[in-house]
Amino acid sequence: MILSIESSCDDSAIAITEIETKRLLFHKKISQELEHSVYGGVVPELAARLHAEALPKILAECEPYFDKLKAVAVTSSPGLAVTLIEGVTLAKAVGVALDLPIIGVNHLIGHIYSLFIEKEADFPLTVLLVSGGHTQVMEVKGFNDITTVAKSMDDSFGESFDKVAKMMGLGYPGGPAIQNLAKDGDRKRYDFTVPLLRTPKFAFSYSGLKNAVRLAVEDAQQEEYKDIAASFEHIATKHLTHKLKKYFQNHPPKTFAIVGGASANLYLRTQIEEILKPYNARLLLSELHYCSDNAAMIGRVAIDMYKAKMFSSLEALNVVAKSNL
Ligand code: KG4
Ligand code: ZN
To answer: Which of 40, 71, 110, 251 has a CA between 20 and 30 Å from the CA of residue 177?
Structure first.
């Protein structure tokens, strides 16, 4: 079995996964959403302190599995350096105490593998990753064969929901709150500009849209917020589908996946389904409870890395805040 740890942002999670069967035997996650909500975003120092409390508590529950472990896996990049270090330090301690090899897992590959929890992996895939930290399109042939073809130049898709929610006083995380408010709103009421509409560049940008929404919020009455939320969700999504449609013209998709915390967004899911129709492409989605950060996806990547003997030495494994993908 593999014990896997996730602490890249505001979720403390540990899982136990059986290597041969891929079965998830244990998974527990303690989210810090409530604690960060008053600040309208994740406060790194507070997050680190909460991980230091939560991770050892969850680890204690894993004790019955200790003598069956073959490796310890941990998210080592990308994420908040001060929170990643909590998981990595714990993984090293467990590795030393139980004499186990360590596997450092990339969080973004973890999100891709959230599609394959308790399942066989299924490649090649074109993947749209939309989370709080990232918005990118990747061609994926395996955990060690990933090409990023587009990414955000500034804010991410999920982050733009968080910031719009903060402007409206809706707390953190903003994604579910905006989705909920938008469902009764008029998507056409506010005519926000679709980002990067006239440039052929395959990239994303959310900072301009965020600022346009800020001006609308400042001028609006509370009862108009639902229309702003709906129009924002519509344009934020249209930006993705507009760029993807263009990309598909030369790279027709066969199997397409949406992963990451914001892949839970229902409007995004239906709009992506629409643009895949002409290609008869399959759409893969993670189970809703595995869209957001969790340790089960880290454990699932770790199975494939374990089989490929991709271990890190205690000295070499370090945290890297920025993604190399
Ligand atoms: O993957 P994740 O749990 O953490 C990161 O790796 O960043 O993603 C969290 C992000 C947050 O920005 C959150 O607001 C967003 O995912 N999110 C959503 C929805 N649910 C979560 N964004 C839009 N619509 C949703 N339904
Ligand atoms: Zn994530």
So the answer is: 110
Percent of the chain with pLDDT over 90: 100
145-151/135-142 β-pairing:
antiparallel
Q: Is 48 helix (H, G, I), strand (E, B) or coil?
A: helix
| Closest-lying ligand 1 atom to the alpha carbon of residue 162 | 14
| Shortest-distance Cα residue to atom 3 of ligand 1 | 292
Using one digit for the tens of pLDDT, what is the confidence trace for 159-187?
999 999 999 999 999 999 999 999 999 99
Same domain, 26 and 149: no
- Ligand 2: centre distance to CA 111 (Å): 6
26 and 161 belong to one structural domain:
no
Ligand 1 binding pocket (C-beta < 6 A) is 9, 131-133, 158-159, 161-162, 173-176, 179, 260-262, 264-265, 292-293
Instruction: Compute φ and ψ for 287, nearest 5 degrees.
Output: -60, 145
Structural domain for 208, as ranges: 125-285
**Residue 66 CA, ligand 1 centroid: distance in Å:** 32
SS3 category, 183:
coil
Same domain, residue pair 95 and 130:
no
Question: How far, in Å, from the CA of 189 to the mean position of ligand 2?
Answer: 32
Ligand nearest to the CA of 131: 1
Range with the lowest mean pLDDT among 35-39, 71-75, 277-281? Answer: 35-39
CA distance 138 to 140: 6
User: H or E element: which one contains 233?
Assistant: helix 225-250
The CATH number that applies at residue 163 is 3.30.420.40
The pTM of this model reads 0.97
- Residue 129 domain flag: yes
Domain shared by 71 and 38, yes or no: yes
